[in-house]
Amino acid sequence: MQARYYDPVIGRFYSNDPVGWTPKNPVMSFNRYLYVNNNPYKYTDPNGEFLNFAVKFVADVALGAALNYAETGSVNLGGAVADAAIGALNPAKTVQKAKRLAKVIKGGCSFTPETMILTKDGYKSIIEVNVGDFVLSKNDETGEVSWRKVTDTFKDWHKETITFTVVDENGVEESITTTAEHPFYVGNQGWLPAGDVSDGTVISGPKADNNISIVNIQVNKKPQYAYNFTVDTDHTYFVGKTNMWVHNSCRFPDSKQMAKELGTTEKDFHKNIKKEIKTDLSKEVKQTGANNPDIGVTKEGNVALKNVKTNKVVETDVPLDSYKKSSQCLNILFPSKEKILMQ
What we know:
Layout: E1 6-7, E2 12-13, H1 51-72, H2 77-87, H3 91-105, E3 116-119, E4 122-125, E5 134-138, E6 145-158, E7 161-167, E8 173-178, E9 183-186, E10 190-193, E11 202-203, E12 212-220, E13 224-231, E14 236-239, E15 244-247, H4 255-261, H5 266-280, H6 282-288, E16 294-297, E17 302-306, E18 313-319, H7 329-333
Antiparallel strand pairs: 1-2, 3-4, 5-6, 6-13, 7-8, 7-12, 9-10, 11-12, 14-15, 16-17, 17-18
Helix pairs in contact: 1-2, 1-3, 4-5, 5-6
């Protein structure tokens, strides 16, 4: 029956908890007040209001398990339950966890480590770019070129990359390897993901008369790490010795993928969630110049809005995960074919 021995004199169990809620710290399982973080005086429920936390608890179990799956490829559900119990008492931990999950799942726009970046100190490989460095950036509305500060750096694992061979107006030829999602600024079309460009496409540079033409495209199936960073204010930078103009973060999945990431159906995304986002972010929607902009996600995991006609992108500070259907999180992220490890 998995019973435990209890000493009424000292008021403690002195055999290990058979449930074993804390794989990170098994000693804590001796403590019958583990579920309230060993503080029953502070964390009590005299008015029966803990039910308000029940839904959040279940959602946080899913979130914790999802984060573990995204980072390690397996699920420690016991640890997720224990962490969620404390998370219900400390909302800040839940927010922090959501940000970590967004960073793991929504990585996408990146370059291979040898890619050269134009910085204030000269060209650096992207792997050498650090927070606080200044990179050459360009505003996609005014065309102003200036030095902007790097605010964060990222490293993502990618199963597939694309190599562009380009030639600029001076005859300089080079190859750049990127991911299919990374946006490049293309002539009069604006921002286009690398996967949507073709031979002959002309990529813009720092100057209006720059002419950087793609002469060959190769898809690479070899998995590898790729790197990216975020840029203050203008959110753009230049890659390679030909100085191709690229965006630093946004990704715009199709509605089916977006619905999956939000833990809902495609129908619910269009009918309810997108409507809610547009209502909450009405000011930002107006800034795009479109009545029905596409919904995307920034590198930080926040909502991005895009005018599909002009390709104008407006980034927000609102986490996309705040619109997630958390109760469905486990079913969406962990298909039945995956092995869930119970501890």
